[in-house]
Design brief:
Shape: elongated
Order of helices and strands: EEEHEHEHHEHHHHHHHHHHEEHHH
Number of helices: 17
Structural class: alpha/beta
CATH architecture of the largest domain: Orthogonal Bundle
Radius of gyration: 28 Å
CATH class of the largest domain: Mainly Alpha
Largest sheet: 6 strands, mixed
Length: 419
């Protein structure tokens, strides 16, 4: 039991109503009730906590399942100490009170409060996040959503071309590029390719700076024998492609704007004051991370937003767990299983995966490590997770020392290795 906390409150949040349960420092029940999810309801929740406990907000600990959202933000704004708990851990703590599998809002609020009172070390104290970090996190997530939507629309566009105009698919590996979309608008059908002028196509290629094709070779490719389709199929596909094309261009434009916002916000994060700096340096966290091979705007934004706490603490263990690059070991008797970690933020896992993938292509030391892992029998994904784990360790050391990445620096050998 901790002497600095005088009461513990568990809040079981939901979409319509939230249930709160208050205990004193000895575990005695102080009260419980539900509150609607509204501005007045959240204000009433904060007032009820103060009235029921009779203590100042900074002496009250509140346990909740989620680390963000309007409930958490309103409670933190009111001055309470808010602690977050993983839902899986809450499920295990619930077994203390019932083994029959019973579950309701009041019970969950009680479990959150009592577990916080007895096992606060399993909770994570939440700290207010800077508005710039919140904006960066939101733009980072929007960028990922736009990327997914762009790929979805591009695949639908490709399917329509496959139905009646497969020659168009052989023009580029990424057939949703702007110049291909412009070319399709100019030549939407195989019949149109036989009537278009070579000079018109040459003008388009020059405007889009396409050097892979000449107008003559491109038209010869498009004028290959077309596939035979039923009457009306080509016309229907053209109409469908026009609808997809408008949305695809919109998403592409939004994607470009999102990338500009990420660059702006990452630069803004570099100007934020940091109370955790242990050395005097002119290099900020974004500059150090950006110097690493494989770190682009999307990966950088994910590290600074989704893994903000671990990056600020220079904690490689926490960041590896969040990124899912360290395995989970299950050992019992003679059985020993090492499994891929599933419980981690998807966005940060994806960002570190692409970080490692691009680093393998551009950094000779990272590529050598990846090749050695593959020779030992590791799969591609497992080798990239090992590479990502090493890159996270390197990044945390660089952040702690305030150093930029030096590609010419020889990697250190593991301790205990035989030379």
């Amino acid at each position: 039991m901790m002497d600095d906390i005088l009461a513990y409150i568990g809040v079981d949040w939901a979409s319509a109503t939230h249930y709160a349960y208050a205990l004193d420092a000895t575990g005695k029940k102080l009260g419980h009730r539900s509150f609607p999810h509204s501005g007045d309801g959240l204000v009433e929740l904060a007032g009820w906590i103060r009235t029921t406990t009779g203590h100042e907000p900074n002496r009250l600990a509140i346990g909740i399942e989620v680390p963000h959202g309007p409930v958490v933000e309103s409670l933190m704004d009111a001055g309470f100490l808010v602690y977050a708990l993983n839902p899986k851990q809450l499920d295990r703590f619930r077994d203390r009170f019932t083994v029959a599998g019973a579950k309701d809002d009041r019970l969950d609020a009680l479990v959150l409060a009592d577990a916080l009172r007895t096992d606060r070390r399993f909770y994570r104290l939440l700290e207010p996040m800077h508005p710039t970090i919140i904006e960066l996190r939101e733009w980072s997530r929007m960028t990922e959503d736009l990327s997914v939507e762009r790929h979805r629309l591009a695949n639908r566009f490709r399917h329509q071309l496959w139905r009646y105009y497969p020659q168009m698919l052989g023009l580029d590996e990424e057939w949703a590029r702007n110049w291909i979309l412009d070319l399709w608008e100019l030549i939407p059908t195989p019949e149109k390719s036989r009537r278009v002028r070579t000079s018109t196509v040459a003008k388009l290629l020059k405007q889009r700076r396409v050097r892979k094709w000449t107008a003559e070779i491109l038209l010869a490719h498009l004028r290959q024998t077309p596939i035979t389709v039923a009457p009306g199929v080509a016309e229907a596909c053209v109409v469908h492609c026009q609808l997809i094309l408008a949305r695809l261009r919109l998403v592409t434009a939004q994607m470009k704007d999102a990338m500009r916002q990420l660059e702006r916000l990452c630069s803004a994060v570099a100007e934020l004051p940091s109370a955790r700096d242990t050395v005097v340096t002119t290099h900020r966290d974004p500059d150090i991370l950006r110097s690493l091979p494989g770190v682009g705007p999307i990966v950088l934004a994910a590290l600074l937003s989704e893994g903000r706490d671990a990056v600020a603490r220079r904690d490689p263990k926490a960041l590896r767990s969040l990124a899912g690059v360290v395995p989970v070991t299950r050992r019992s008797g003679k059985q020993n299983l090492v499994l891929m970690r599933q419980a981690c933020p998807h966005r940060l896992r994806t960002a570190v995966y692409h970080w490692a993938r691009v680093a393998v292509m551009h950094d000779v030391h990272t590529r050598s490590r990846y090749s050695a892992l593959r020779q030992r029998g590791h799969s591609h994904a497992r080798a990239l997770r090992s590479v990502g784990s090493r890159l996270i360790g390197v990044a945390c050391v660089m952040l702690a020392n305030g150093e930029l990445f030096d590609p010419d620096r020889a990697p250190q050998k593991p301790s205990g290795s035989v030379t």
